[in-house]
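Render this sequence as a predicted structure.
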Amino acid sequence: MSPNPSSSNSGTLVGILCGMGAGALWGLVFLAPELARAFSPLQLTIGRYLAYGLLSAALIAPRWRTLTAGLGRREWLALGWLSLGGNTLYYILLSSAVQLGGMAQTSLVIGFMPVVVTIIGSRDKGAVPLITLAPSLILCAIGAVCVGWQAISSPASGSSGPQWAGLACAVGALVVWAAYAVGNSRWLSRLENVSSHDWSLLTGVVTGAQALALIPLSLMLDRFDHGTVAWLQFTGVAVGVAVLASIVGNALWNRMSRLLPLTLVGQMILFETLFALLYAFAWEQRLPTLLEVAAFMVVSASVILCVSAHRRAVVAQAPASA
């Protein structure tokens, strides 16, 4: 039976909407280090993922035995490294980048994610060739450079050392999350008996266990003499990010990963960058500069071109399989 182009386009649209929703919620994680700046990146990571782990365990508890009965050693190892790269290590690096270099600079570096993931995904069977995606990738790079030039060329107070350290942390976050995005998408395509939502909850349980293991390290390295108000604010930020970004955002992302090819999955991370920048402007109580507006327009055009390339590929493949 030949595939229905209308059904394929409908799945693509739903996938894109899920990607936008995930980006809007994930953009909040850039705000968290600013909202709880009195706490270290390690403390923020432990707080967020303890809450994520507890919520995930509560949601999955009624089906735990049935769900885990079909998981073997390979699946648990995959959950371990995906949780480490996509959650624990990524958020330590991202929080450090925001506190050291600012939200705009960090958003810029994470904005290169689509280029990295798309290049890797272009080797997958059935992927849209890189030459077809070239205009989209070029515009993506131009948009990221526009935002980066704005962030890095702005006068910084004091030494430039923290800003460069923040840039290094952001690059590290880019690397580990690119590995997660590719690995997670490929694992989801292999799993037949585990839904994308359950996979996200299992990831949350494993990440919560990793957060517990980090508590002794935090006790040795971090300060804990904060006031009651600061701790309440920290708890609110940790729980809020856990629910919105980790539970709901991850569920949307995993749903999208099953509906879209890997090359388009990479482009969807642009929405996280765009929403993170919007939140940054709101936090700083300012309008974007002309250069930042240009970056928004260029990055948006990049996504539209990529979507168009994939739709043309779906239509072109449909008659061939009739």
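Summary. The mean pLDDT is 81. Residues 5-153+160-320 form one domain.
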